[in-house]
Amino acid sequence: MGTKGYNSYRGRSGGGGRIAWIIALVLVLLAAVAFLVAQRYLVYDEDGHAHWELPIGKTTGEDTPANPISPEDVVIDREDPSEPEPEPEPAVKPVQKLEELHAREIEYGSLWWTPEYVLSRSEEDLVIEVKRPGGGITYGTTVEVAPGTTVEEGVTRDNLIALLESGRYTVARISCFTDPSFARAHPEDALTTAAGQLWYDGSGRVWLDPGSEAVRSYLIALCRECADLGFNEILLDEFCYPATGDLTAITPPAELDKTAVLADFAAALRQALPEDVALSITLRGDMGEPGGDSGQTAEFLAGFDRIYVAGEVNDTILRDQLPASFDTVGGLVLMTQQKPQEGSYVIVP
């Protein structure tokens, strides 16, 4: 039986409630994802307080590497200190390997003779004295010399050039440090006694100071002129310290490294010469044996292209002291008055 004025109640529709639940679930999921992502930029300072460091404005360009390398990660590869150091080169390194020399020194005053006559006297190569032990120059040099120096002017320069153009191998012999003219004009560049007087060796000769810059400049200029004129080889005679006389009276200090002074001089001279001009040195009896007071050690001598040995010197001792690498066949020259049966030689007047 129905009730008057009453209809059955069915309530509101349930569709709106389901939408609300879906939206809420989506918001929860988004919040969870945001929380996980935010953990990457949440940074705690030294006091434990959290703060955000967002990537906005940060770069990983070349100026700021994305993955910087700490100093602990750097490995420095150093050379093994146990590896042997290279052997030092000679102070005066030879520039070429020379063949045997068969030469003759022309006689005193030969540059006044005609070149044809000089060449007709021998078919051997030529050693020409251009600076004498007394300091005199045997040809018309353009190098400035000390006052009082004898220079043989006239036809000597032209005759010298003709000999140099003859096709013969030519050697210029230069007496280096026995030069009384230079010493008297410039005593400050000579070896002196404690009283400031010129020092004389056992043969009564005065010596220039091998360490003097003025002496070095003069001799280098003269050697360079000889090379420019056409000489094939420069022979440094008396290129040493004196080995006879009262050596204790000379003023250079006792700790002076004579070999080092000579080697430095020779190296500068080598640099001033053309590469194809050989540089040689003489060992004489009055210079002492290698390694003595002269400063000419065997190692120092071996740095030159040739070593000229005077007849009174025992070349057996020299050969024993020279390094095995030195070419004694072409590089060791006997200065003699008679032609030897073998080896390099120069016949002296």
Structural summary, described in words:
The protein has two domains: 16-56, no CATH class; 102-347, Alpha-Beta Barrel (TIM Barrel), CATH 3.20.20.70. It is of the alpha/beta class and 349 residues long. An eight-stranded parallel barrel has the order 3-4-5-6-7-8-9-10. Helix 5 packs parallel to helix 6 (258-272). It is 26% helix and 14% strand.
CATH homologous superfamily title of the largest domain: Aldolase class I
The quaternary structure here is single chain
Beta content: 5-15%
What is the total number of structural domains?
2
Largest sheet: 8 strands, parallel, barrel
What would CATH call the class of the largest domain? Alpha Beta
Biggest sheet, spatial arrangement of strands:
3-4-5-6-7-8-9-10
The secondary structure category is: alpha/beta
Question: How many strands?
Answer: 10
Topology record:
Layout lengths: L14 H24 L3 E3 L5 E3 L49 E4 L9 H6 L4 E7 L24 H9 L5 E6 L4 H6 L27 H17 L3 E5 L20 H15 L5 E6 L14 H4 L4 E5 L4 H7 L6 H4 E5 L7 E4 L2
Parallel strand pairs: 3-4, 3-10, 4-5, 5-6, 6-7, 7-8, 8-9, 9-10
Antiparallel strand pairs: 1-2
Helix pairs in contact: 5-6
